Amino acid sequence: xxxRSTHRIYGLPLVLFVFLxxxxxxxxxxxDKEDKRVRVSKAQSVAEQVKISLEVFSTERIQAVHNLxxxxxxxAPNQVDWFNAQAMSLMGMQRGYSSLTxxxxxxxxxxxxxxxxxxxxxxxxxxxxxxxxxxxxxxPALAESLASTLVHSSATGHYxxxxxxxxxPQELNHGYLLAGFDAQTILGVMLGELEGPQFNFALRDSGxxxxxxxxxxxxxxVITTEPFSFIGxxxxxxxxxxxxxxxxxxxxxxxxxFMSALASxxxxxxxxxxxxxxxxxxxxxxxxEASLDALVIYxxxxxxxxxxxxxxxxxxxxxxxxxxxxxxxxxxxLTLLGKADLFDSVVAVATNNTPFEEYVAIKExxxxxxWLKVQVVKAGDNIALTARDVTERFKAQRALKNxxxxxxxxxxxxxxxxxYTKTAEHKFIYVSAGIETILGFTPDYFIEKExxxxxxxxxxxFNIRMKSGQGVKPDPYLVHYTSCEGKxxxxxxxxxxxxxxxxxxxxxxxxxxxxxxxxALQEEVAYQANHDQLTGLLNRYxxxxxxxxxxxxxxxxxxxxxTDVKRDNVTTIYPSxxxxxxxxxxxMCFIDMDRFxxxxxxxxxxxxxxxxxxxxxxxxxxxxxxxxxxxxxxxxFCIIYxxxxxxxxxxxxxxxxxxxxxxxxxxxDKLFFVGASIGVIEINPQEHNAxxxxxxxxxxxxxxxxxxxxxxxVYHAHDAQLNMDNSENDVLHTLHxxxxxxxxxxxxQAIMPLNGITEDDTNGLEHYEILIRLTGSDGTLISPGLFxxxxxxxxxxxxxxxxxxxxxxxTLEANPLHVxxxxxxxxxxSGITLGDEITLLKITQRLQGTTVPLEKICFEITETTAVTxxxxxxxxxxTLREIGCSFALDDFGAGMSSFTYLKNLDVDYVxxxxxxxxxxxxxxxxxxxxxxxxxxxxxxxxxxxxxxxxDTATANVLKALQVDYxxxxxxxxxxxxxxxxxxxxxxxxx
Length: 990
Description:
- With 990 residues, this protein is of the alpha+beta class.
- It has five domains: 59-194, PAS domain (Beta-Lactamase, 2-Layer Sandwich), CATH 3.30.450; 284-395, Beta-Lactamase, CATH 3.30.450.20; 413-514, PAS domain (Beta-Lactamase); 522-719, Reverse transcriptase/Diguanylate cyclase domain (Alpha-Beta Plaits, 2-Layer Sandwich); 743-989, TIM Barrel.
- The strands form seven sheets. Strands 29, 30, 31, 32, 33, 34, 35, 36, 37, 38 and 39 form an eleven-stranded mixed β-sheet that branches.
- Strand 35, helix 29 and strand 36 (909-912) form a beta-alpha-beta unit.
- Helix 17 (596-603) packs antiparallel against helix 18 (605-620) and helix 21 crosses helix 22.
- The longest helix is centred in the N-terminal third of the chain and has 69 residues, at 2-70.
- The radius of gyration is 52 Å and the shape is elongated.
């Protein structure tokens, strides 16, 4: 018996060693074969890709050369120039050419074009005048295909491929075209990615190795492609995946032998322990009774196992069904527990002597544990089974696993967000899958290459890391990264420091999100909020903010402007404008464009916009980077010449005004002269705030306009001009007040017939013109020559015109007897009203609702206004004529316009400008002018009215010329409309 045990102790471990050794050696051989198969497959796949890439590259270049020959002109004044232009264009679009060469029909090289990007070349301009034989290429004259040759250049040290053909085999007089390719440079670029430890390869042409990497080892894994065409040559590619430093099969075999020996030795020890088991049985039983695991011993009983022994804890563990289980065999016990499938595993343990371990779910309600960890081992001829209650641990593990899975699903499913973990040194060690949806890089790649992907880090990086080291959560910060597409993306990080028990930083965790769109939107909003969309200059808001910052920075009351000046998006646009303790803040200029409205009215707003864009470009040319330029209104600009004295600014303004005066604006077929009136004021924070500066500069600008336009006027606080400014402001205030509270007064002046009663004056009906007067705050009348230009300048004339129309109709509607004795009531309209569609609509609606016969209403428009905006004038006239009104063309002749315009304007009366009428008695030229205007108007069926009839002699001359009507102090003086209405009404009543 002892001898048998000894043989078993040593024989079985030896058998196990032999079996495991054979198993691992077989596995090693299999892995070695599989490795070779994978290497061959990988090399074959890469070789095919390289072949396709080279064939595509070759096809595109050869096709381009054929296209160049097909497009060769039948006749060109200079074939060399044409060829050079086409060749340079081709080489610029398709890289890879080292040269393109043109030879004439005699085979003499005429020109060699080389690329500008420095590609090495076999052919150079030194070959010009040499025969084609000097290139080493023989070209059959009638060949349709390209001839090619491979040459080695001692100058470049490279192999070159030269291909060529007659440009047209049918017309040899066109010459020959050759294309050179630096084969080694091209292959180096295209196969450069394969250079490295991963692949060995060689690219050959007729025995010449053009490009290679590493040494090909003949171990059965070298792949050689079928010959393929590359720029007219037949190439073959041999490729091999480089052999790793260590063979996986050998490693598996060696390690397997070691593990086999170790397992056999352990098995030998176990066998020896089994023999000695009987000696220590009592100690084992004592230990088993004290164990916290249930220990059950079974012995074979036919095809089953019966219970031999169970420790005390097993009876406690299975206490609900202990009595029932103790009488059953192992198979019946497992069936009762609902785990009959485990019986085969137990049999396998007894057969193979291999321990078995599994977590088992118990569904039997009589047994308290829900999960048991069951281990089965062979104990001699018996089976030992241990069971441990792992219900709580298993539940905790399962809950943790479920929680981790939910967390991972949540984290990896976030859109434009990802979770990260960094070390205490702020090196990424974990990022969630969201990084791939944002940057396009895998988490592992981002962790490895993160420092190379960064484009910009926040300026406060040091403070962020210092706060994290102190355990303080820093504010979110922005980092700019490069995506896989090369785009710059902005990520916002929110760090949370993780500290150990001693308060030291051990990690940083947080969540990041893609804020690229938000940042771009914020920048766009900030830009649009501070810039004029038409010109790109600062707008009124940004200019006011800059001006206030300048005044604040230069104010003597600001304690420390270098450190405590608030800066925002506006300020940082021109940071150089903010400098503290500056003795000379600079000079501000308020610019208003002259004759801008003429362009707008004549050609429309698109022309005005184009003019503003071109003028703003001129302004930019006369300022420096330190200065500030803004568009603050329709045609109003402001310049701040920063830290410059007034004398130097005047010199710059002289140059600016000269540039503006010589500038000519062309739109379609029209030419315009424009100018600029500039108000200038020195910036003094102690005397003016921002609003006062702009107002003073605005007043100075209007003074420049009054002085003749296209000039500048310097504002001085104690200048006599200040009183004039205040006077204009008072008039403007009175004008606004009059529009709001009906502060105007209507006057009238008769238009008298000069040659008897006309058809419009039957029965002595009166014809007069409506005039407007403005009463000042002191009760005196303000001259129309003062308040009307102000109203036009400030865009109020359309409101004034409508007030006149409305109140004239009100007066006439209240006096129907007077209306019956009136032939025509003339009402003047300004140029602003002519171009205002809304005012036209209001006037039309007012006329359609009046009781006054509309044939008694005549509107007067000035000739210069009508000609300036001819289309608007025609539309205005046609609209009101359709409802019954008539029209007069006022101040005719003053604008020196062509009589052609008169044919295009459907008016009833032509009012001859008073400048020609005033001296008609003594000035023969005026006499001739009035005669011509009168005759032409009559020939067109229009009646004439002469203005400024100052005396009887003038009236007599006009009568002799057959002028229809006259208007002037010699015929009637202006009087309030109310007086005229009352007088005529009383006269009719009598």
